[in-house]
Write a structure and sequence with these properties.
The structure is a single chain. The protein is an alpha/beta fold. The chain folds into three domains: 163 residues, P-loop containing nucleotide triphosphate hydrolases (Rossmann fold); 49 residues, no CATH class; 99 residues. Helices cover 45% and strands 10% of the residues. The chain is elongated, with a radius of gyration of 26 Å. It binds adenosine-5'-diphosphate (ADP) and magnesium ion. The site of adenosine-5'-diphosphate has 16 residues, from helix 3 and helix 14. This is MoxR family ATPase. GO terms for molecular function: ATP binding; ATP hydrolysis activity. It comes from Nocardioides guangzhouensis.
Length: 410
């Protein structure tokens, strides 16, 4: 694609063919800001480079730091259509690429029954009849009967698109292999039809919540950025930009308190969306002062696990006032007897707080279990599966790619 013409460093949006590209990093920052997304320089630089280099962006980081929103805002500011592939474990690649429209094929064969009968009418035996039908295969396995799913839709789109491949860490290796072909060539091979090559390079955004390591091969194909919680200034800007109704002075303190909660290394740290929710909640309650009482009463807006809640409750007084005494009722000994209700073991909570392995095991209990019984390299035991997910062998990427190449020759 042609770069944006940059006479005088200024481009009139939506008028030139390159209107969906950015002039420079500042332009990127400004246009995202106008769309309500406050990026920092690093993120804006990555997005700017992606649009110029035609490379996918891989955003890794904790939940709620604006990874998905970035793709949505990118579509908004570039005027491109957003196509989204939400990844999940056990996802069938046909759901990501394309399916044959079985219903439509059946309908056509019903309507064309007479015609089909003519084809086989004078066949000597069953074998010959099958042969004759098989010769008509290409009629029914043609583009007409193809149902594109997000990846093929992105590649075959007449218009330039943004393709969001969300939470790719939840996908299996098989799907990751399919993605490799797509991300390096921007093409998809359909054995019955041929290779579909992108008319316009899509802006691809992959996100990962870090529940497992992604293959080196996948990372190599992408501009990689770790997106962490924003600094105080930017988080405050984000809160203020959301019209939460909370006075600025209180918002500043609230951001500080949330940052303090993040230090506690909870199983699920509060993220930007939680800070926004908390600000809205406090504004609705008409709170004039952030006291330990009012914060404790509304803490469930930002902390979602019982054990985290206990930990956070204990910390609130000292976060509000570093010299505060911890009330006896919230002190030691309160927690036990609770917190066993999630149906899986918590004994590592303190040891590996909010770590990726912990999230992997807990956010989705059973994710490494049962569904994969029997498949090579997978175990039906949850803890084994978890181990496998933690330690991805270095050669995994190339193996996945090889497997993918075998499956769908170009
Ligand atoms: N940089 C940002 N500017 C504006 N809003 C943001 C930003 N980052 C996060 N948010 C807010 O946080 C919410 C959660 O972000 P999301 O993209 O869903 O997180 P993730 O995909 O990383 O889990 C968004 O809907 C948005 O309201
Ligand atoms: Mg997301």
């Amino acid at each position: 694609m042609d770069p944006v013409p940059s006479e005088g460093g200024h481009v009139t949006q939506q008028e030139t063919p390159g209107a969906d590209e950015f002039t420079d990093v500042d332009d990127t920052l400004a246009r995202f800001r106008d769309a309500g997304y406050l990026a920092d320089d690093r993120l804006a630089t990555t997005v700017f480079l992606q649009t110029r280099l035609g490379k996918p962006v891989l955003l890794e980081g904790p939940a709620g730091v604006g990874k998905t929103q970035l793709a949505e805002s990118l579509a908004e500011v570039t005027g491109r259509r957003l196509l989204r592939l939400q990844c999940y474990e056990g996802q069938d690649e046909t759901k990501a690429l394309y399916e044959w429209d079985y219903g439509k094929q059946m309908l056509y064969t019903q309507i064309l029954r007479e015609k089909i009968n003519q084809v086989v009418e004078d066949a000597a035996d069953l074998n010959e009849a099958v042969e004759r039908i098989a010769r008509q295969d290409s009629v029914f396995f043609s583009e007409r009967f193809l149902a594109p799913r997000p990846l093929l839709e992105a590649i075959s789109s007449e218009e330039p698109v943004v393709l969001l491949i969300d939470e790719v860490d939840r996908a299996d290796e098989a799907l990751e292999a399919v993605l490799l072909e797509l991300l390096s060539e921007f093409q998809i091979s359909i054995p019955e039809v041929g290779t579909v090559t992108a008319r316009h390079t899509p802006y691809v955004v992959l996100t990962s919540n870090n529940t497992r390591d992604l293959s080196a091969a996948l990372k190599r194909r992408c501009l990689h950025l770790f997106l962490d919680y924003p600094d105080t200034r930017r988080e405050l800007d984000i809160i203020n930009s959301k019209d939460t109704g909370l006075a600025e002075a209180l918002a500043i303190r609230l951001v500080e308190i949330v940052r303090g909660l993040r230090e506690l290394e909870l199983r699920k740290s509060p993220s930007i969306s939680e800070t926004i929710d908390w600000a809205r909640t406090l504004a609705v309650l008409g709170v004039k002062d952030l006291t330990a009482d009012v914060l404790s009463q509304t803490l469930n807006v930002v902390v979602k696990y019982e054990r985290d809640l206990e930990k956070a409750m204990r910390a609130i007084p000292s976060l509000v006032d570093p010299n505060a005494e911890v009330p006896e009722s919230l002190g030691r000994g309160h927690g036990h007897g609770h917190g066993h209700g999630h149906g899986h073991e918590h004994s590592h909570d303190e040891a590996e707080p909010d770590g990726k392995a912990v999230r992997a095991a807990k956010d989705n209990p059973g994710r490494h279990a049962a569904a994969y019984g029997g498949t090579k390299g997978r175990s039906t035991s949850g803890s084994e599966g978890e181990k496998a997910a933690r330690s991805v062998p270095a050669g995994q990427g190339s193996r996945s790619f090889a497997a993918g190449a075998r499956k769908r020759p170009v």
